[in-house]
Amino acid sequence: MQRNKLGLGIFSCIAMTILLSSQANAQALYTFEFNNDSPFDLNQGIGAAQTATATVEEGEANPTTDVVTVTTVDLIAPEFADDGNGGFIRTGNTLQASNGDLVTTQTNSNSLGIDNPSISDDDFFDGAGIENRDFNDGEGWVIQFDTDVSFTQLDLSSLDDGTLTVTIAGATPVVIADLGLDGDVFEEPFGPGIIPAETTITLEYASPAAASGNFRINSFTVMTGASQSTLLGDVDLSGQVNFLDIAPFIAVLSAGEFQAEADIDESDAVDFLDIAPFIAILSGA
Fold first, then answer.
1. C-alpha to C-alpha distance for 265 and 124, rounded to whole angstroms
2. How many CB atoms lie within 10 A of CB 270?
3. Pairing of strands 201-206, 129-130
4. What are the residues facing 177 on neighbouring strands?
5. Spatial separation of the C-alpha atoms in residues 112 and 262, rounded to whole Å
6. What is the mean predicted confidence (pLDDT) over 111-132?
7. Upper half-sphere CA count for residue 159 (Cβ side, 13 Å)
8. pLDDT tens digits, residue range 181-198?
9. Cut 0.85: pTM above it
10. CATH number of 28-224: 2.60.40.10, 2.60.120.260, 3.30.70.870, 3.10.310.10?
């Protein structure tokens, strides 16, 4: 009997080792460089896509996914009009590529920005800036990936004094502020969460002064095959359970959607039966 237990223990250890090894080998990094000749250069709109090839270190097995593709879903920019005094003023309207407006991506100095069609590149607008195909105040890029990914690095060109708000569908928005450096590089910028394939991700810039700040994206790196245990109650995917999870939990419950972190009783459905155990987790019970 003891021999059988020992054999079972050895078998379990071997099986676990194989499982962990296969998970590690399946992980790979993909870096998207937004150079002047990238697929997002030269006024590209919805449907423009760029593919990155896996980076595999020497001695590691090939990843299960060799390439990852990011695609533009929409583009956003505020509308400006001639103010009659040689300048530009906001009309209050928002331009969107999905509405047929000619908002596009463009690269400048080997980094990605947004081209706003309501102003020419050399014109001052709002008395405080130049539309030079950066991400300016109120401009945004909506993207999605063709496979599950997690962001490991976001490399920005001079975020200035504004903020970049990243909204991932189903999660609480992440606000990234200026680091005060010439170029801002953020590690795990949106937290450790895995973003499911075809999830909408919106990156939108806001400047505290009237259109005085801007930034561009030099590159970003994502990882596939990341293993992540579901943290029950962590509905905003912040890595911890707290009162900030209440609003997204209610949103998932109200929408009748499924999210593993909100399925507190692990019944494979998010419903009213999850409310009591969710409250218990929040209260530390």
1. 56
2. 25
3. unpaired
4. 163
5. 35
6. 63
7. 23
8. 666 888 888 877 789 899
9. no
10. 2.60.120.260
